[in-house]
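Input record (one chain):
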Amino acid sequence: MYPLLSEDWIRQYAEVWKDNTKAIEGTKGLDMIVEMSVSDRDRAPVHIHVNNDGIIDYAGPKLDGKDPKFNLAAPAETWRKVATKEMGVRRAVTGPIKFKGSLATALRHFQGLEAALHQFADVPTDWDA
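The corresponding structure, as predicted from the sequence alone:
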């Protein structure tokens, strides 16, 4: 089990992504850095880089000097609810998840981004750490 959005967790997330066809297909062409954090934990944010082919080629600590295309921050319980589909992704990114970035771009790639957020449930997570 990994603490949510820790460096070890995000590396495991990148491994799980390799088998997530919906996320890969749905994010093709974005070439984006995404910053994610848990707002109610004292933990530094993490970054992933999804290349034009929809593949994560970086997962780890925040990259200095790199501006993320999307920035998502939420309490652990919100992340858990989205992962387990108790809360819809569309509702989450317009409410409890603090979302920065182009909402229009996110909506154009919604199926991929939804699959990416639901993938949180596939990483062995210690939601309380």
